[in-house]
Amino acid sequence: MFLESCREIAQRFVQTVVIVDDQAFPQRIETPQAEVVPPPIRGLAPTVPDEDSVDVGIPVEDEQPAHGLDAGELSRQFASIGIVCAAYAPLQSGEPGQLKEVDAINTAKLARHADVVVVDWLLDGRSSSLAIGLIRSILDADRDEGGRLRLIAVYTGQDDLSLLRGQLLTVLQGAGHNLQLDTEGAAIALRGKHQRLVFLNKAEASISAGPNVVSVTELPSRLVNEFATMTQGIMPGVALASIAAIREGTHFLLAKFDTTLDGTLAAHRALLPEPADAAAYAFDLIAKELSAILEIGGEMRSPASLENMEAWLDHEQKASRFRLRADLDDLPMDKVKGLLRNGATDAVIKDLAESTAKKIGKDKIWTHLPFLYCGADVEPQANHAFARLACLRREAFGETYLPKGWRPMLTLGTLLFEEGSEESEQFGMYHVCVQALCDSVRLKEPRFFPLLPLKQVKVDKKFSLAARLPDTRDVWLALEMYPYKMIFPEFAPDTNTKTVRGVPDPSKLKHFYFTPPGKAQHGSKPRKFLWLGDLRPTVAQRIAHELASRVGRIGLDEYEWLRLKAQ
């Protein structure tokens, strides 16, 4: 039942498939082309192994039999389940291992926007260099942009899929991609944290039967299954269903925000004291409409429903992936499901505590729940990742999409790491900006920004926030809610945006620094603040409210007996 739900969500999400195969249109007559070597632009032209590296492809001298692909029939099969399929047949430049420049660029562009990419292993009939280079360039571009979900299928007439998998793994690991053999199920595949590369045989291959021999009519369903395998889980299902809901509502959104509203937005801008604020207001209206679409979609078909969560538990237990911590290993599954069904009421927690051999007290049982559902092997990483997701709307060194040219803004909720400060044990100090948003914009001259300190603590202590450092070190942070510990460095605004913006370090990916112009010093060195992320607005507002309450405390000198009697 759980796998069926994952497949249903995957089919709802997948909309576009790109097939790259030089035999997609076998009736085409090709003429020899002059050699054109594509420029080595990462993410645009497929790369091939360096001349000094080991050649893991099929030798050029061994001409391989061509295995055709009926692109027309394939597109009809995909259309029958509501998926758009584009077949692209690249031309060679005249030499093995090289595409025409325009085809190399076009292929990479198509792959960038496709949900699933299917590549033939021998794109010139003789060598695997083209396919390997194309796959590597796709994964390189994904990595440079911060990572993305990616399913690539090698659909080939070559017999030994395990051998091909090993050849591709050698090249990709050598290029720094963290991939490993996927041994689950019958599929010949590689997997990474967000990638899955599966190898399938065309029905015309010399292997006539087997779990990985897939005909054109079977290919759409098989690819949906492979995508569901890659995205199997509750939270991946929530993400996929959310994006699918937005896709389904896209054209309704476009119809709602039509050109008749142009004049009203112009009037709004003209009436504002700061006209430039109209642009942010327009985007905020779109964001609220998207949120409404997600709310409606979530109510109708939620992968996080009780029924689906119970099915997930059954599936994980059957697959031997659901492993409890040692002191909870005797807990019956009906108790585990009961928490999901009824919530952590006093009666449920008391019953749960009495059901374990070590009789964990009900006042502490809540600390064990992440271990209970995550399993002892992955709980620390998963718990920290979920905590960051809950308190940060964007972060520098996690999995946040940061478009090229974007720069963070210093305002309420900006999380900073001060490099070179005295806290040697922590290699720096942590701060959160508590400057109100209205005081962070429309700046015409340098301004002081109040920064509230945070202290790094261990997981068994009290903390409020979670963050990740550049070296992927995860830290827990506790607020130092003392106004006298705050610092007030002065920052100069950007002349174009009239806000304080982080400056990127060109030598380090995703490193943005806020640097006071020489007025705030640590010894002989200027203070330097590394951007770690931005808190969610509600989290930042709560911190500001608590700080204001602390500042507004009343020191009342009163009759002590009366104070002690007070309720």
In short:
With 567 residues, the protein is α+β, with helices and mostly antiparallel strands.
Global morphology: globular
Main pleated sheet: 9 strands, antiparallel
Number of beta strands? 21
Derived structural class:
alpha+beta
The first-to-last residue Cα distance is: 55 Å
Radius of gyration: 28 Å
User: β content, as a range?
Assistant: 15-25%
Give the uncertain stretches in residue-range form: 27-55, 58-62
Helix content: 25-40%
Looking at how many chains there are and whether they match, the oligomeric state comes to single chain
**Tally of separate helices:** 16
Mean pLDDT: 81
Protein topology:
Blueprint: H1 2-13, E1 16-20, H2 71-79, E2 84-88, H3 101-113, E3 116-119, H4 129-144, E4 150-156, H5 161-174, E5 180-182, E6 188-191, E7 195-202, E8 213-214, H6 219-230, H7 234-256, H8 262-271, H9 277-300, H10 306-318, H11 333-342, H12 346-354, H13 369-374, H14 379-391, E9 392-395, E10 414-419, E11 429-433, E12 447-448, E13 451-457, E14 465-468, E15 474-479, E16 490-491, E17 503-504, E18 512-514, E19 521-522, E20 525-526, E21 528-535, H15 537-551, H16 560-565
Parallel strand pairs: 1-2, 1-3, 3-4, 4-7, 7-8
Antiparallel strand pairs: 5-6, 6-7, 9-21, 10-11, 10-21, 11-13, 12-16, 13-15, 14-15, 17-18, 18-21, 19-20
